[in-house]
Amino acid sequence: MEFNGWIIFAYKIPSEPSSIRVRVWRNLKSIGVHYIQQSVCICPNTKELLKRLKKLELLIIENGGEITLLEIEKLSTKSEETILAEFNQERKLEYQEFIEESKKFFNEIENETKKANFSFREIEENEVELRRLKNWLIKIKKRDFFNCQLQKQAITRIEECERTFDEFTEKVYRSEGIAEEN
Q1: pLDDT tens digits, residue range 119-162?
Q2: C-alpha 72 chain-centroid distance
Q3: I need a surface site. Which of 3, 77, 98, 108 has the fewest CB within 10 A?
Q4: Helix 151-175 to helix 120-143 angle, to the nearest 10 degrees?
């Protein structure tokens, strides 16, 4: 990913209503910022992130808060190494959780296969879960600015989920007499 330095985003929000603080925090976490201390976060300087932070700036100001947005070309080498490691650690935890959750998907299909529960209802249920996993991975990858080491494993895992789902779907079709055996 190409980025031009860093953005430091510091903010103050009135304590009430707390819903605004929560909304700001959730938005910042979904963007993928890294908190360097309370109400002070950092992220790579990209057009997309800057645009999203500017929108958040308006929300904060409209609700009586204050923000400081700093665009910085370079951090010290040691600070940048630390920040990069912390970004990647955060993504690593997300990818690990994703991989763990995908195991439940495989287990569900394996259990339904063992029970020979080949029904359209099972296709629909598993399709919903597969879509949820795909969307989750897309969100993690958007926040993975520095290509965490687990990204490839997570991508491989979702591809395995898709293949497993396709195989299960084919078994349902065969059991329903819709597809011919090869």
Answers
A1: 999 999 999 999 999 999 999 999 999 999 999 999 999 999 99
A2: 26
A3: 77
A4: 170
Residue 14 φ then ψ, to 5°: -55, 150
At position 72, the amino acid (one-letter code) is I
Q: Which two structure tokens, joined as six digits, stand for 110?
A: 């394996």
Question: Which residue type does 43 have?
Answer: C
Q: What secondary structure, in 3-state letters, does 101-120 show?
A: HHHHHHHHHHHHHHCCCCCH
Q: Which long-range contacts (CB under 8 A, 24 or more apart) does 156-161 make?
A: 157/98, 157/99, 157/102, 158/102, 158/133, 158/134, 160/102, 160/106, 161/102, 161/105, 161/106, 161/130, 161/133
At 73, give phi and psi (nearest 5°): -70, -45
- Report pLDDT digits (tens) over 71-94: 999 999 999 999 999 999 999 999
Closest CA to 84 of 42, 38, 21: 42
14: pLDDT confidence band, cut at 50, 70 and 90?
A: very high
Buried b (16+ CB within 10 A) or exposed e, 143-177: bbbeebebbeebeebbeebeebbeebbebbeeeee
DSSP label of 51: H
Identify residue 145 by its one-letter amino acid code.
F
